[in-house]
From TrEMBL:
<dbReference type="GO" id="GO:0003700">
    <property type="term" value="F:DNA-binding transcription factor activity"/>
</dbReference>
<dbReference type="InterPro" id="IPR028082">
    <property type="entry name" value="Peripla_BP_I"/>
</dbReference>
<dbReference type="Pfam" id="PF13407">
    <property type="entry name" value="Peripla_BP_4"/>
</dbReference>
<keyword id="KW-0238">DNA-binding</keyword>
<dbReference type="Pfam" id="PF00356">
    <property type="entry name" value="LacI"/>
</dbReference>
<dbReference type="GO" id="GO:0000976">
    <property type="term" value="F:transcription cis-regulatory region binding"/>
</dbReference>
<keyword id="KW-0804">Transcription</keyword>
<dbReference type="InterPro" id="IPR025997">
    <property type="entry name" value="SBP_2_dom"/>
</dbReference>
<protein>
    <submittedName>
        <fullName>LacI family DNA-binding transcriptional regulator</fullName>
    </submittedName>
</protein>
<dbReference type="InterPro" id="IPR010982">
    <property type="entry name" value="Lambda_DNA-bd_dom_sf"/>
</dbReference>
<keyword id="KW-0805">Transcription regulation</keyword>
<feature type="domain" description="HTH lacI-type">
    <location>
        <begin position="5"/>
        <end position="59"/>
    </location>
</feature>
<dbReference type="InterPro" id="IPR000843">
    <property type="entry name" value="HTH_LacI"/>
</dbReference>
Length: 346
């Protein structure tokens, strides 16, 4: 129910005094068995959890939380985040919260900067953001911190003492997982680490994945592997990839550090003379289709829906229930193939 019930409302519904309701909610003082039964029946019907309500009924402040993430219409990777945000809003709708979502263009740093300025003008209590652009994120965090606005992040981790909580994966370990997968199905050959459409120097998530990937193979010290980094930009992704494949006939595997493995899979599938193994990220529709066709071998699931949901939940727990927020929440690195993909799809 959307209605926020007061002690007066509960007392009227139960046919008892406000003092009786207060004693039941706070578990103090004497209450007759009959009065206790009446109040608990009302609390049950209106789906109250007495221990939580008692705190919320005392607090009339409306906490304002702003969420900032890339526009899912421009990058479908972020669509599950919207569902996670909606789930959190539904769960906490009975409380004094205003949760707003803002989108920026994932290909334009100026869009990210402008949306942050818009949020600052609203003077929220907290911001939950996806730090796609590293340099601009650090600048935004400084501004929020100077205004005593809490900042939490999800999906990509940045180093800042002003961030209260991060939810996501260990991207270095994620890169190592991808490397081990390719090592298992290749045994030897030329591997390309492929970054698509982001400025590598300003994209920590790409750097960390590549660092972990290379770290795995550096520990093996195996001369049978050659590793190359390939940076591709639209609209020339397919053309430049085909040229790279033609120039490197020994290419046997690729690791794509973003959710756009399907773009690489499409071009590779047109190369009929040999099998090139593919490891990518995320369960967007095009990736899953290529996974089921056997073109993509494995996908690493980052569970972005859970990331957004937990990011909001930690802020709500902090404001309403005064719970301590963990500095880092790392989610499992799920390995998906054609046999188990259905279990992860909604």
């Amino acid at each position: 129910m959307d209605k926020k019930y007061t002690i007066k409302d509960i007392a009227k519904l139960a046919g008892v005094s406000k003092g009786t309701v207060d004693r039941v909610l706070h578990k103090r003082g004497k209450v007759s068995p009959l009065a206790l039964q009446k109040v608990n029946e009302v609390l049950s019907v209106i789906n109250y959890e007495p221990n939580l309500i008692a705190r919320n009924l005392k607090n009339n402040k409306v906490y304002h939380i702003c969420i900032l993430l890339p526009d899912p219409k421009l990058d479908p990777y972020w669509l599950p985040c919207v569902k996670g945000i909606k789930d959190a809003i539904q769960e906490f709708k009975a409380y004094n919260l205003l949760i707003e979502t803002f989108y920026f263009n994932p290909e334009k740093t100026k869009s990210f900067i402008n949306i942050n300025e818009t949020i600052i003008e609203k003077a929220p209590d907290a911001v939950l953001l996806a730090p796609l652009f590293h340099k601009e994120t650090l600048e935004a965090i400084k501004k929020y911190d100077s205004l005593n606005i809490i900042v939490n992040t999800f999906n990509n981790q940045v180093e800042s003492t002003s961030i209260k909580n991060f939810v996501g994966q260990d991207l270095f370990r994620s890169g190592r997982v991808a490397a081990k997968l390719l090592n298992t199905i290749l045994n030897k050959g030329h591997i390309a680490i492929i970054h698509i459409d982001e400025t590598y120097k300003n994209a920590i998530h790409m750097q960390e994945k590549e660092r972990g990937f290379r770290n795995y193979f550096s520990e093996k010290e195996d001369p049978d592997y050659k590793i190359t980094t390939l940076k591709l930009k639209s609209p020339n992704v397919e053309v430049n990839l085909k040229n790279f494949i033609n120039e490197n006939p020994d290419l046997s595997g690729v690791f794509i550090t973003t959710s756009r493995a399907y773009q690489i899979a499409k071009t590779i599938n047109e190369v009929k003379d040999k099998k090139i193994r593919i490891i990518g990220y995320d369960l967007i529709d095009e990736n899953v289709s290529n996974l089921n066709l056997g073109i993509i071998d494995f996908l690493i699931h980052q569970n972005q829906k859970r990331q957004a949901y937990l990011g909001i939940t930690y802020l709500v727990d902090h404001f309403l229930f005064h719970k301590e927020t963990p500095e880092v929440t790392l989610l499992p690195i799920d390995i998906i193939n054609s046999e188990n993909a259905d279990f992860y799809l909604e």
